[in-house]
Amino acid sequence: MAITDIQAFSHLTDADIEALGHELDSVRRSIELSRGERDAKYIRRTIAAQRGLEVAGRAVLFGSRNRWAWLTGTALLSVAKIIENMELGHNVSHGQWDWMNDPEIHSTTWEWDMTGPSAQWRRAHNYSHHTYTNVLGKDEDLGFGILRMTRDEPWRPIHLVQPLANLVLAATFEWGIALHDWSIEKVLTGTPPWELRSKPNRDFARKIGRQVAKDFVIYPALTGPAWKSTLKANATANLIRNLWAYAVIFCGHFPDGAEKFTIEQLEDETPAEWYLRQMLGSANFKAGPAMAFMSGNLCYQIEHHLFPDLPSNRYPEIAERVRELCDKYDLPYTTGSLGKQYLLAFRTIHKLALPDRFLKRTADDAPETSSERKFIGITLPHTERWGEHNRLITDPVTGKRRGLRSALHEAKIALEEKARHEKEVLREAKRALKDKAAHERAALREAGTALRDKAREEQATRRANRRGRGRIRLGGFGMRGRPA
């Protein structure tokens, strides 16, 4: 089940967690104080490059009836849409560049090249998701309302089709996000479902109209005779952007190690515990500079969740300091290759489509969802009793703080040892059963042999008796059959 007590799960003391929070505050302050012209040049160059790629792509598509022109134009447009969505639209809307006071690059004025209105996404995503990251019943992005991503959500028959729903969501990701944010917007504004002319509905319809007209009417029409191939190119670029955005988001939120939390964890949650929840509820994937840029630097999802409003180009240096803190406080830093992280999320989607009775691991020790209860009943070295749970203490040899990373490692060893012991017990039981069965078979064979021997003896006795009686009768008559 999901984490209810983050302190017990992390194996840190209150003082440890508060100290971690102070150090992360220090990271924030240092980045805020060092923001300047270098960062401003970065975002302005990014905007210029993205717009240049889009103009070039749309220009090439005027000749899109030629195969190579179509491929080139589609590729340029796809890259432009990805950059606009990931590094610009997403990050600008987070307020990462509001400190520049540039009205063009501000979260309140930027409108991204996606189906849903930026304003609706900001309220749904920045509030619901980033405030309540992976909290069941509060974070609407946990499965986006259509996927079961934790066993804490009861299984329903509709979940059997979630592998198919996942494919549809990937291909139409911008529409899925738009509908998702639109529904949250109506809840946040208290809009009744029957008010069709409400502001959320009007804003949503207006943005859809603009996007559809731009990509599927105006730009194709501008290319004249090439309108059909241009329309296909626009649709393909949108599809590529959707698939990439979907993959990046799922790799940052749903691989193993991105933990979930119950609503009880929010009770009296301190700012330091909020930091810790972001660290434990997010995951990174490994990327070089080019892939990091194309992902909007969301390959640093942990850093993004810790500091969603700090400039994305600073995440690599923030990541170094966060890694150091994870080492210092013995916390896991969840990362892996893009392929690995996605396959873990993909496995969870397909696995949790099935009822729980078909799953092997327990709800408290499932790879996709862990909790403090996974440590109950497991004896870890160098621990002390802390309420219902054991807590690791400082390593007596190295003097190093021991936290969740050590607990997970030692719990894995303990569980493997327990599994080996159970297998050995099972093997011994099987051997005992085999020996017992062999003994019983031997006893049955002996009993069968004894019964057969007895039966043969009885049969021989009966034959002998019959022969004896026959001789007696023959001995009582003469040669002519008369009595002697």
UniProtKB/TrEMBL annotation:
<feature type="region of interest" description="Disordered">
    <location>
        <begin position="436"/>
        <end position="484"/>
    </location>
</feature>
<feature type="coiled-coil region">
    <location>
        <begin position="404"/>
        <end position="436"/>
    </location>
</feature>
<protein>
    <submittedName>
        <fullName>Putative fatty acid desaturase</fullName>
    </submittedName>
</protein>
<feature type="compositionally biased region" description="Gly residues">
    <location>
        <begin position="473"/>
        <end position="484"/>
    </location>
</feature>
<dbReference type="GO" id="GO:0016717">
    <property type="term" value="F:oxidoreductase activity, acting on paired donors, with oxidation of a pair of donors resulting in the reduction of molecular oxygen to two molecules of water"/>
</dbReference>
<feature type="compositionally biased region" description="Basic residues">
    <location>
        <begin position="463"/>
        <end position="472"/>
    </location>
</feature>
<dbReference type="InterPro" id="IPR012171">
    <property type="entry name" value="Fatty_acid_desaturase"/>
</dbReference>
<keyword id="KW-0175">Coiled coil</keyword>
<dbReference type="GO" id="GO:0008610">
    <property type="term" value="P:lipid biosynthetic process"/>
</dbReference>
<feature type="compositionally biased region" description="Basic and acidic residues">
    <location>
        <begin position="451"/>
        <end position="461"/>
    </location>
</feature>
<dbReference type="InterPro" id="IPR005804">
    <property type="entry name" value="FA_desaturase_dom"/>
</dbReference>
<dbReference type="GO" id="GO:0016020">
    <property type="term" value="C:membrane"/>
</dbReference>
<dbReference type="Pfam" id="PF00487">
    <property type="entry name" value="FA_desaturase"/>
</dbReference>
<feature type="domain" description="Fatty acid desaturase">
    <location>
        <begin position="69"/>
        <end position="335"/>
    </location>
</feature>
